[in-house]
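step 4 of 6: structure.
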Amino acid sequence: MNEDDAEQIANLLMQMGYSQTDSPEEADVAMLVTCSVREKPEDKAKSMLGRLRDIKSERPGMIIGVCGCMAQREGEKLKRGRPYLDLVIGTANIWQIPDLIRQVQARRRFTSALDLPETSSDPLTTPTRIDREGDALKSFVPVMYGCNNFCAYCVVPYVRGRERSRPLDEIVLEIHDLARKGRREVTLLGQNVNSYGSTLDTKVDFADLLRAVSAVPGIERIRFTTSHPKDLSDRLIDAMRELQNVCEHIHLAVQSGDDEVLRRMNRKYTSAHYRERVAALRAAVPDIAITTDFLVGFPGETEEQFQNTIRLAEDIRFDAAFMFAYNVIPNTAAEKMDGQLTRSEKNERLGRLIEVQNRITCEINSSQIGNVYEVLVEGVSPKDKRRITGLTRQNKTVNFKGNPDMVGKMVKVRALEGHLYGFVGELVEVCEPVCA
Ligand code: SF4
């Protein structure tokens, strides 16, 4: 979601006549897109603000703004002790950036915009997308904003507001436009795409949306993120099985393998429900890759409860996982819970889970050596300039020897080595326009 916010902000600034630079030292406007999901990203954003302050001392006309979840959470408090800060912009106010910049330029005075929709029926304002050179392959498309789930550890419903879905027709029109401009892959974005449509007057759900997007000519790959296990319906699984251009990958955050921890997290499903949904997905789409999020060391988590998480990881054998130790986030329900674990207890458990999951990921990828995968070539490998890189439909990275002019093409690659990140492979064929 933050990547999409950053793209929307860049688009709005380019409509004002700015161009992008990779060097903060050259920037006339610097907008930080921030994250509050853990302490570390907030610390990083604050340290980046210090760096921008130093740059601004050499370039006094520079405009510095903070956007995203930390801006929404801290609001005008961010200005305290930061006289160089010009703008604080909430998650639902991005579209106002051009006006806010003009106000700062005219008055050289600190400005903020922090209105958050309080109900699901509040209007949505989606900035218009404009094209940048080099955006040839794929796009994020937000289909909904906000979240109504209030998981006990999460700040999202407080900083991104209540769940609001975009109308289906508007999304499909946008994707037709992207396809006409050469995009081959779209990722439908939302905090919980599985509940798409529940706030709309028309009766549509995420399966309907997938079917409508699948019918857009030219879109060869459809991905979506993120899915909530409690809302993963049979209708959606049927759509995933039937629609050829929906990729064989789902990110389905489990967080814990223990029912009591899941209850206190307010996740609204049990580990048995989760296991049953994974079985249904694998029965419908046999080559699906399933990835997840784990949160260990939630308040009150006992060693036995943590062992249930390890057991679930061993049983399900996820293709990959994002794994985190619980951090207190201010203003969430979990902040006030008893039984907070020490940092070293949490890190020790996290280390054990990482060891288990990384072994499983490597085992799965090694077991797939010899398979041939369709890969959309995205660029030169950042780690090895002699190789090019792309993603399989299962969302696994493949690096292989090839020609940079293959970037943007669909190719077939045989997996030769399995690694934690994916595969090293060899080119089998370039199959334009579409792999058979
Ligand atoms: S589903 Fe839970 S974890 Fe995900 S954004 Fe909503 S409240 Fe946060």
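step 5 of 6: annotate
 - The chain has three domains: 2-113, 138-367, 372-430.
 - The pocket of iron/sulfur cluster is lined by residues 147, 149-151, 154, 156-157, 191-192, 228 (CB under 6 Å).
step 6 of 6: archive
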